[in-house]
Write a structure and sequence with these properties.
The complex is a heterodimer of chains A (189) and B (124). Chain A is of the alpha/beta class and 189 residues long. Chain A has a single domain, classed as Rossmann fold. Chain A contains six helices and nine strands; from the N terminus they run βαβαββββαβαβαβα. Chain A has helices spanning 15-23, 44-52, 105-109, 133-141, 159-165, 175-186; strands spanning 5-11, 32-37, 58-61, 72-75, 81-85, 89-93, 119-124, 145-149, 171-173. Chain B has a single domain, classed as 3-Layer(aba) Sandwich (Rossmann fold). Helices cover 35% and strands 23% of the residues of chain B. Chain B has helices spanning 12-24, 35-43, 61-70, 109-120; strands at 4-8, 28-32, 48-52, 77-83, 99-104. Chain B is globular, with a radius of gyration of 13 Å. The chains are: A alpha/beta (189), B alpha/beta (124).
């Protein structure tokens, strides 16, 4: 079974605060969300549990070779890059840090491939540096929709700014608006 | 551990203010007035949330995090920067994965308590 929409959300410093706003009472959406949050490994599970309490979607730590399912949020575990294999499955790969981080938002976003009937959405939230910018460009190039968090609400306006500077961002939004767009674009299940 | 916060700041007025706010919120607050003191707390087994100032004499916040990582002390601690500095510079790129959040000075009291309690809830 394949999903019709894959949304990749990338965030770093300040991300947990912003994600809390986005996921609070988020209904079950028609598609899969893959979340790349830079964080220490030992908080992967509590972070996952805290998000799971906020939304009706199922939130889980991603597993290698796991199939993407609609209505599920997959969190990338620390220490491995997460790739989307043929828009259907998750691959977790040990590798060099990219932009000083592993998992890298760019690595995940750039693993998406154009495929008829599957829509891609890329979102870059608060964080230092430029992880996510190449990924946003890639998602735009494969026909996806791209969003960056606005400067006003970003705890660190590094990654969203770099994404915006690619010229490939469709919408610059605050967390509430990002939530609205997720509901609009992914439709309710 | 779940209620423990370590403030690392060379400014005693900031320490006093933050300590008062967090103590009133029911948290156990420890203090380090330098990066070296912070490392001593960690060597003695501190586990919890660290509120780290960036600009400090001798060993600044980033030097301190670098040393925490090098000494293998990045275990059961969450680091949140408490800073008045607008943007972290390029030098901090390689350490960014160890910092979960930034709280800007001057900070809102409620925001400080909310953010600290939220991250402490990740600690079992």
């Amino acid at each position: 079974m394949s999903v019709n929409t894959i949304t990749i959300i990338g965030s770093s410093a300040g991300g947990p605060r912003i994600l809390k706003e986005i996921f609070k009472e988020l209904p079950v959406l028609n598609g899969a969300i893959v979340l790349i949050q830079h964080m220490p490994e030992f908080i992967n599970i509590p972070f996952c549990e805290s998000l799971d309490q906020l939304t009706d979607m199922k939130v889980k730590i991603a597993e290698d070779w796991e199939s993407l399912n609609s209505g599920v949020v997959y969190i990338a575990p620390s220490g491995r890059h997460l790739l989307i294999h043929r828009n259907r499955q998750i691959r977790l790969v040990k590798g060099e840090k990219y932009h000083h981080v592993c998992p890298s938002i760019d690595v995940t976003m750039k693993s998406l491939t154009p495929q008829g009937g599957i829509r891609h959405i890329g979102i870059v939230l608060t964080g230092m540096g430029n992880d996510g910018a190449e990924g946003i460009k890639h998602i735009k190039n494969v026909g996806g929709i791209t969003i960056a968090q606005d400067e006003e609400t970003s705890i660190i306006y590094g990654m969203p700014k770099e994404a915006r500077l690619t010229g490939c961002v469709d919408m610059i939004l605050n967390p509430g608006q990002i939530r609205e767009q997720l509901v609009n674009l992914m439709n309710l299940q | 551990m779940k209620n423990d916060v370590l403030i690392v700041d060379d400014d005693r007025s900031v320490i006093r203010t933050v300590k008062r706010i967090l103590t009133r919120a029911g948290l156990n607050v420890y203090v380090a007035e330098s990066g070296e003191e912070c490392l001593n707390h960690l060597e003695k087994g501190f586990q919890g949330l660290i509120l780290m100032d960036i600009i400090m004499p001798e060993m600044d916040g980033w030097d301190t995090i670098d040393e925490i990582v090098k000494r293998g002390l990045m275990k059961d601690i969450i680091i949140c920067m408490l800073t008045g500095k607008d943007e972290p510079g390029e030098r901090m790129e390689s350490l960014k994965e160890y910092v979960i959040d930034y709280i800007r000075k001057p900070f809102n009291m409620e925001t400080l308590v909310d953010v600290v309690k939220n991250y402490l809830s990740y600690l079992k």
